[in-house]
Amino acid sequence: MSQRIVIVNTGCANISSVRFALERLGVTVEVSDQDSVIKAADKVFLPGVGTASAAMQSIHTKKLGATLQSLTQPVLGVCLGMQMMVQSSAESKMGDIDCLGLMPGQVKRLQANGQRLPHMGWNTVTSTGDNPLFAGIADHTYFYFVHSFAVPVYEDTLASCEYGQPFSAAIGHNNFYGVQFHPERSGDAGAQLLTNFVNL
Amino acid sequence: MLAKRIIPCLDVRDGKVVKGVQFRNHEIIGDIVPLAERYAQAGADELVFYDITASSDKRVVDKSWVSRIAQVIDIPFCVAGGIKSVEDAGRILEMGADKISINSPALTNPDLINQLHDVYGQQCVVIGIDSFYNEQNDRYEVYKFTGDESRTQQTRWQTVEWIKEVQSRGAGEIVLNCMNQDGVRQGYDVRQLTAVREACQIPLIASGGAGAIEHFRAVFEQADVDGALAASVFHKGIIDMQELKEYLSAAGIPMRKAHLRNKD
Q: Which pathway does it serve (chain B) (predicted)?
């Protein structure tokens, strides 16, 4: 039976890339900002690039906060989409801003210890334990990252990466999953992860 | 560990990949999508598409190829050329490009960098800089409109000062094209790249001069750049991507290893 896969239209620029990556896997996807469509999906993607404050503003404008908070099916946040899933983000000119609070955690500026920001390029990811999201993906597999803020390693970390300091490359809590890297731009490794999520 | 990036650059005109001799007599070398796919499969870490389609005759330049590439490519790619406004950039990003690169328009209107940063985020704002070493005064000088010999002009900027300026305005990455080395395949301008590296706190990509695999090793080891861009050595088959990456990896330079997917 074919699944209903919905990408939440956050108004961000990488929606096409995520849609194309899923279509390459042979699944049909719908991009929507409608409450009823998002709630009826089997799997939900929450993409995002840009800044947390702009993206949260877009979610508030579209009145999607409550919709996303009510979801019980698997949801995957990508990059900024992942950062929006936790409680707060430091990526704002006015101090910490509230995020969606779908899971615990805070987004902090990467303390790269003298390394250059943004953290841009391919870096290795290692999962912290057995998790279906990383099935078939060996430790130290390369994924593509572009970011200057990150969630530190904590109890909901599913996989970690290191750039000056260790940080969460993937997080998970109940039905909510998030990846800091871009699976849609991470070659075969990214395709494997997307397949794993679709098959959850 | 963050890998160093190998970035093939493809020149595009009217949706075809071309190669030219000193910006003239462009010869079509193939359809853009299969070529892009081939580079991605060969292990390129990223691709840059430089649209050299002349926009001076006021027609709307067809950019639909960006979307066709985004559909098949599963590595990041950047589009350069002809992006003069936030709206131009938005169209390219919405079609699926990960980054946009601007050069002369940033020199004409530096505030464009701030606007792009504020609307689309630092991660997608790449600034291309054409830098020329002036032997007479021992300075690196920034040029603009280098795509058209008759319009090429020196700006008031010295390269390090312009790098600092674009960073303060929100650039996310710099591609430094060293004009003295461009097209001669005698090696990257390691001296210049080393000189600007300290001032450049964001990722720095070397461009211009690649002719042999040793040139890549030298620029990574000596200038500590984050990526190396090259065109003709890949198009002409002078350097094989996989061989290059194995050589650099053996030399201790971190290179991405491809994930072997279970095809079940």
A: Amino-acid biosynthesis; L-histidine biosynthesis; L-histidine from 5-phospho-alpha-D-ribose 1-diphosphate: step 5/9
